[in-house]
Amino acid sequence: MITDLHTVPGFVFNGFSAGLKKNNQLDLAIIHAEKPCAAAAAFTRNLVVAEPVKVCKKQMEDGLIQTVVINSKNANACTGELGKQAVYDEIKRTSSIFHVAEKDVFIASTGVIGRPFPITQVLNGITLAANGLENTEKSSDATARAIMTTDTKPKGASFTFSLGEQTIHIGGIAKGSGMIHPNMGTMLSFIITDLNIKPEVLKVALNKAVDRSFNMISIDGDTSTNDTVLVMANGKAANDLIDSTSHQHYAKVEEELTRICIDLGQTIVDDGEGITKMITFEVKGLPEEEDCRKIIRTLSTSLLVKTAFFGKDPNWGRLFAAAGRAGVNFDPDKVDLFMGQNDELCLLKTGQPEELDEALADEILSKRDVKVKFDFNQGKAHAIGWGSDLSYDYVKINAEYTT
Q: What pLDDT shows up at residue 221?
């Protein structure tokens, strides 16, 4: 898995063992910039939120972040005043160790909800990290591994793109394989870039990117208490400052930020707990993009749809029925439904069932990557989202999560 944070200049990072997990597994990650960065974040929309989320919403008020601390194993959620104080203790220790302003520290946690937070171990881990940050492929991989919980592999993406004559580097890591659902539903993602951009403009771009990526994935319909996406831009590329959404290069920035968020979101779905199928849902032909998204959210969370895909059952009626209960008004007699990466299996044409090619259906459903496409033929809007099937292993993993 590509976790090339080290391709972005001006940052150092690493993963450490603070003793939260057994057998000296990595459980604490730190990302540190040479100077305060323009930053933007998106958080869970769950009403029950972890203590780091509460605190870091305030930390983001000036749009600047320099050092990020992430722990796994314990979510520091539903931990009361002790959990909240632990976040402030982490901020103070990080500020002292890395010589940064307290207001420029960002804290994130992931793991089990409702367990006392092991603040002593985490603080010791931060101190341990003082001389351990690097900008290498090895430290990038360790950073991605340190934030994993039930993930089976580290997740990351990186690439470059051009703004005029300047080359922009961007890289990111993510974690999550369960408790994943639209509305930032446990997933964490941290993206770094050398882009030169104002924080308020970066915030607009991130919100647009999240709506088309992380908010369009679902594994189990549960929105986490801790979901966080953070982007840090250090300006080292020295491109012409992107200071508004009307800047000539803003659209390109939004496009590339969306691209990396989609890449990271897909890695999360592909590592979903117990999944055997990664399903791409494409919906087009409705009046509004939000209508298309509603259909996708309903399809990707339907237990009947998910179990049909696990059983390789071409029961397309479940797809059509799910679309019909999504709260979107449409004429069923105008709808086309296809399955396959190239829409090779037509199941429904202008609301009328097509003869099922069972051999082709079996061929499509025997693959790990499956695509479903609805064309409602009643508008010009379009959206894409990603989901998974529901397997026996998902039940086993989550039945034994805290044990």
A: 53
